[in-house]
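Input/output pair, single chain:
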Amino acid sequence: MRLAHTVARMRNGMEHTMRRRLALALALLIGSLTGGVALQPGAADAATCLSPVYAFYSNGTGKYVTTETTYGGSDNGMLRAAHTWTGGLNQLFRFCRTGSVVNIGAFRSLANDLYVTAEITKTDTNYGMLRARSTTIGGWETFTVFGDWPEVSTADVNLYSNANSRYVATEVNYPGNRDGMLRARTSGATGGWETYRIICISGC
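Output:
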């Protein structure tokens, strides 16, 4: 029985690794076919929004990701990991699958019921800013979640933007009300700034 249990664990581990590799290959393929920009906003895919509600904790700042709904103009809906836990709607998200791969899809903020977008047309220190501002799902709103999620409902993960083939990072050195901004900007190895704990709050 011990041998059978060990074989089963090895098989499960191999299947999990294969799923992660397939998801990464699909994400890279989307980016390569479109020059790093998968689709323009408005090119919506059919999405299945799951019932669980999630929060994100940044390992880089030790704070929770929050939708800044009071910001004006092109900063409205900015995502920042700069607040302690309040449990408000601006710290809660749903995941919407855009296909059969379980860890590829979009995040919808419960604060304004809009999808999180990677702003890849912005420049300099705003490049790749994450904002909850879209009513539809296209390439800019599509992310791949790497880690043990969703097999484990609460897990450390890396968020990979399919829009520009980069990982999401928390900007821990930005000044003022931009401190903790989330940007899809890391092209190499990931570290603490690119690691988030996805926490199931309800519905799991």
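The chain has one domain: 2-202. Helices lie at 2-33.
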